[in-house]
Amino acid sequence: MLRLEDTTSQAERLLQTLQDMRQKEELTDVILEVEGRSFPCHRNVLAANSPYFSAMFAGGLAESKQDRVTINGISQHIMGLILDYFYTGILEVIEDQVQELCAAACLHQCDQIREECSKFLLTKVCETNCVGMFAFSDMYGMEDLKYKSQKYVELHFKTVWNTPDFLQLPQCQIAELLSLDGLYVDNEETVLESAKSWLKESQEREQFGLEILSCIRLPHLGTDALKRVSEFLGVEQEFVDLELERQSLCDVDTTGQAEGINEGPDTDSDAESNAQREDTSHLVSQWVPPACRPRLGTKYKEMIIFQTKLVDSDGNHGFPAYEPRSGTVYALNSQRVGTYMLNNWESTDYIVHSLVATPNCDLFSLTYIDPETWDHGLPLHVHCLVRTKGRRQLWRYHGYAFEDENFDLRYSALAYLNEHVYTVKLGLPDDRSQTWHWLYRKSMQDMIGVEIAAPWKRRHWGDQFWEKFEQLPAQRVGTLAACGDLLYFIGDTVFCSCDPDTRTVTPLTLPPEPISKLDERPVLTAYKGLLYFLKHRTTTDRLPTLQIYDPTEGKWRVGPRLPLLSNKVRLFILQLVVYDGQLVLIVGTKEGSWSSPDDYSFQISFFKYGARCWEQADIDPPPIGKYLSDEVLPFSVSCVVAKLMPESLESGERFLL
To answer: Which segment of the chain is annotated as a signal peptide (predicted)?
Structure first.
């Protein structure tokens, strides 16, 4: 018996033969007319590649008997690309035409093209196009793309609600977006303002006032805003009062039950809780227009995190997180690596060296495994405190940035700029053989809508999702900061900017007082288009000064004298942060007395930068000075401002010494 099996080569030969016949117009039996251009084709090839054409030519429609068929709703260029794919299996299209191609593929049921376009567009969703992507994916039923773009709209709602794409959405899509629980807004007034702008965009939209009214969480509006709902939405006050009453009743009767069910237990192993959740699941799935819970973004509070030792003297993990408005101190639990990590090596701890917060309530930490716990030589790792769900707070592993150990752990920094997190590898203090160091970055794309149940079970320790981005001159001390659309790096011998779009590193003028000693921890903070730089040392032989850099002028100037500093006090905090829209200086001092050298007084003070001078900030100091002084890191206490959900944090009573 002779058996010949050559399916791959036969398929390639068949495609090539059909393409040759199409180009020579041999045995073609139909002509597609698109925008005045004729495309001779074979009906069987069209039908084999598309259910749309199969129904057209084999379903008894009028087109099945026509020699020429006019195709509408598609450009001749896109039709040419689709036909080329039908006959060759190859398709190449520039990025600007992918959406048009995807729309045509959806219309003509070209499933493979549609799937590939969807995968490509998923990688291109960003803050500037998420609204348009949402509208596009909703129109063509692309669920994965719609989910991701919706997540971006939720995260960036404060910046996208007044864009042309948002104002051009149809009523059904606007209502869907304004009804989302997950909008990251500071207050419900932002949602009301967005509804007002959309309604005022066209007189024809005035008829949708009542529908939009039901999307606004009226019980969570301030008194002044509530009085203006009728004016903003163009509805009578009577309807506003009725809707407010209905939502208030809904909030009392159903929201509490739904919230409890949605949050669920901390673990899924409790069978009884699971059964109870299943028995009451109908309460959650039942749509009550609208859900009257506060928006997710309003639950977050701006806090100041004091970065101390990861594990304190009593063996507790975590950092103090201070919420100035309420005067409450919380405990931000740190990530701990235990069972299942590194072949079940238990009690392995991470030491945090840098924290950075994103505008959307994510918190990243640059960490390494404590060598005192286990000397296995693993490099720096990056974790992310993802936006919490309910009352659960999770750190998720996001790979490590460096593939070798030739770096100084003390001075590796994190910075956030335009949907990317950046970090830099610095050399060892005594290694002068290196001439370049690498700037790494990681895109936020892969973190939106991704759930990782047990990231510590991963066995892959490669350069996971991190991009080796750009080279920087070798430095032994340094830090990063984002200002405008540029990333700035300052080290002991260099100050430069990096343009992520062009990958251009530009040397800049060093400050009048650059970093001169390796134990100086640099602080670089961006505020209102300027860069504020100071050096913090735990010794006080030379007091630090504030230096300000103006990127537009390319010049440095010396800022006002820093308050509370003298040679008689020991610093354990000297940080610049942006809190509540103001540049705030945090100073922590430890001062002893002549009569009792072991009796120290601790003071934490907050100052805001005013008209070129420091003024006392309206922030009450937390009573955690002694704890911070006792648990200070070798390079002092660092501070970062981040938005956290209080209900996801633990009590910080142990910090109140």
So the answer is: none
E strand or H helix at 208: none
What CATH code is carried by the domain that includes residue 236?
A: 1.25.40.420
603 within 8 A of 588, measured Cβ to Cβ: yes
Query: From CA 589, how far away is CA 605, in angstroms rounded?
Result: 9
* Nearest CA-CA partner of 527 in 583, 608, 481: 583
In this prediction, residue 76 has a pLDDT band, given cuts at 50, 70 and 90, of very high
Interhelix angle for 76-88 vs 7-24, to 10°?
A: 140
- pTM score of the predicted model: 0.72
> Which tops the pLDDT comparison, 365 or 105?
105
Given a cut of 50, is residue 462 above it in pLDDT?
A: no
pLDDT beyond 90 at 110:
yes
The continuous run of DSSP H or E covering 441 comes out as: strand 436-443
Query: 448: domain range?
Result: 300-655
Torsion sign across C-alpha atoms 490, 468, 434, 539: positive
Same domain, 249 and 339: no
Please report the DSSP string for 260-285 in residue order.
Answer: HHHH--S-TT-HHHHHHHHHTHHHHH
Kindly state whether residues 212 and 183 are assigned to the same domain. Answer: yes
| Overall number of domains in the chain | 2
| Assigned domain for 102 exists | no
Tell me whether residue 590 is in a domain.
yes
**What share of residues in the chain are helix, strand, coil (percent, to 5)?**
35, 25, 40
Q: How many CB atoms lie within 10 A of CB 358?
A: 19
Provide the β-strand partners of residue 654.
none
In angstroms, the CA 52 to CA 66 distance is: 16
Q: How far apart are CA 116 and CA 142, in angstroms?
A: 12
Residues 6+ apart with CB under 8 A from 537: 517, 519, 520, 521, 544, 571
DSSP 8-state class, residue 254: I
Same domain, residue pair 284 and 328: no
Mark whether 609 and 502 lie in a shared domain.
Answer: yes
Does 249 share its domain with 387? no
**CA 160/CA 182 separation, integer angstroms:** 15
343 within some domain: yes
Q: Which residues contact 615 (CB under 8 A, 6 or more apart)?
A: 607, 608, 609
Q: Is residue 636 part of a domain?
A: yes
Q: Is the pLDDT of residue 552 over 60?
A: yes
pLDDT at 252 (0 to 100): 52
Answer positive or negative: Cα dihedral of 536, 542, 545, 549. Answer: negative
Task: Examine the domain organization and report whether 226 and 312 are in the same domain.
Answer: no
More confident residue, 444 or 293: 293
Question: Beta-carbon neighbour count of residue 328 at 10 Å?
Answer: 16
**Phi and psi for 404 in degrees, rounded to 5?**
-135, 175
